[in-house]
Amino acid sequence: MILPPSTLGMLGGGQLARFFVIAAHEMGYKVVVLDPDKKSPAGLLADKHLCAAFDDAEALNEIALTCVAVTTEFENVPAATLVALTNRLPLHPAASAVAICQHRISEKNFLREHGFPHVPYAEINSEKDIPATDSGLYPGILKVARFGYDGKGQVQVSTAEEALAAFTACKSEQCILERRLTLDYEVSVVLARDLAGNIAAFPTVENAHRDGILDVSIVPARCSVEVHEQAQKLARRVAEKLGYVGTLGVEFFVCDGSIYVNELAPRPHNSGHFTIDACVTDQFEQQVRALCGLPLGDPRLHSKAVMVNLLGDVWPEGCDPEWHALFVQQGLKLHLYGKHEARPGRKMGHFTVVGNEADVVLKSAMDARLELVKANNLSF
Ligand code: ADP
Ligand code: MG
Fold first, then answer.
1. What is the whole-number distance in angstroms between the Cα of residue 70 and the centre of ligand 2?
2. In this structure, what DSSP letter does residue 84 have?
3. How far does the centroid of ligand 2 lie from the alpha carbon of residue 149, in Å?
4. Which is nearest to 266 in space by CA: 282, 285, 280, 251?
5. Average pLDDT of the residues in 104-125
6. SS3 at position 78
7. Whole-number Å distance between alpha carbons of 42 and 301
8. pLDDT at residue 76 above 80?
């Protein structure tokens, strides 16, 4: 077991890393954050911020020398960095698991090879693959295999001709073509798995997206018992098949009552932010615990919860929003990520409303958002 006050390494300095730093600090650990952005949200709170590229040999050497274990907050850390660190100190999740999740083709092939229900897809490695695609994949979505997030790098296509044009527009980068489903709704499961293979899963979350970006998460999800049970079972099996150690997010689609695994996040997940305010142990403390070889904490939900993302769109031109509308709401917890610049679509913060009655919690969260919009003269 790695015990406080040991120093832990974090690759990435965004909001997920910031919450990791907060959890680690509360438990008595120190954290070194590597991120090239000198104003990164986690770098601002870390004991040390290495402001360098993710493949900077000197920075990686410093992590290896000063940290006792290292983890990541995002899947796009270069594979070579993960391999280099693996050879020097414990790194969880393993480079092999991150590699699968960071590339949509390897992720989908992983799901197919292990028999997980997934959306029909085709690998698009070059133009030549497009005329050969099955017509059953249209209408579809062409998604770049790497670096896509929050709906970025995705184009809706109705025919092979449109897919070809979209592929060319994506600079002929490797892509997947996926059938576009008419979704009943979306759910996710966030869980933690330790080195011994014990799993602590959080309750199934219902997620609503807006323009491809998570908007609202509702817990417990308003889904059938079957969907809930399947989501939990599938998420556990994904973690096992990946040999995963750490906090993992698994996104699902529900379509015509059937469940499909959408994608995997080898890190805490935006849809797991409710755990900070509504669970005994949150997803970031679990990440610390799994990394350090501590027993996993109790993931039990003690309150119903609704989480609402706050994007840069909520920031009026040139100033900060009037937050009063949120602070007056009982049971509402506001979390701002300390980002210096608000841009449309950029995740700047979130709030979670907790309470005993699911309907009341949902109404309070929606009312709070409306009040925020009104107080800041925004159109939404
Ligand atoms: P990312 O979250 O990495 O941007 P996703 O593949 O999860 O990429 O897509 C973002 C959102 O777009 C999904 O949560 C869902 O709302 C919608 N979406 C993605 N793929 C499909 C699909 N095949 N059919 C219907 N909706 C989809
Ligand atoms: Mg997604």
1. 25
2. H
3. 7
4. 251
5. 97
6. coil
7. 26
8. yes
CB atoms within 10 A of CB 207: 21
Pairing outcome for strands 258-265 and 121-124 = unpaired
User: What is the Å distance from ligand 1's center to 264 Cα?
Assistant: 12
Q: CA-CA distance, 262 to 351, in Å (whole number)?
A: 25
* Cβ proximity of 8 and 291 under 8 Å: yes
Is 363 touching ligand 1 by the criterion CB < 6 Å? no
Residue 380: per-residue pLDDT: 66
Mean pLDDT value of segment 269-275: 98
Is 337 in contact with 372 (CB distance < 8 Å)? Answer: no
Length of the chain: 380
* Ligand 1 pocket check for 186: Cβ under 6 Å: yes
Look up the pTM and report it. 0.97
Q: What share of the chain is helix, strand, coil (3-state, %, to 5)?
A: 35, 25, 40
The vertex-80 CA angle with 199 and 61, nearest 5°, equals: 95
User: What's the pLDDT band for 150 if we cut at 50, 70, 90?
Assistant: confident
Instruction: Give the position of tokens 């009026």.
Output: 316
Q: Tokens 């699902």 label which residue? A: 252
| Assigned token pair, 66 | 């000063």
Question: Is 379 a residue whose pLDDT tops 80?
Answer: no
Place of tokens 């015990």: 3
In whole angstroms, give the CA distance from residue 92 to residue 309.
28
Give the span between the Cα atoms of 172 and 243, in whole angstroms: 33
Distance separating alpha carbons of residues 351 and 306, to the nearest angstrom: 8
Phi, psi (rounded to 5 degrees) for 282: -95, 170
**Lowest-pLDDT range of 50-54, 151-155, 269-273, 354-358:** 151-155
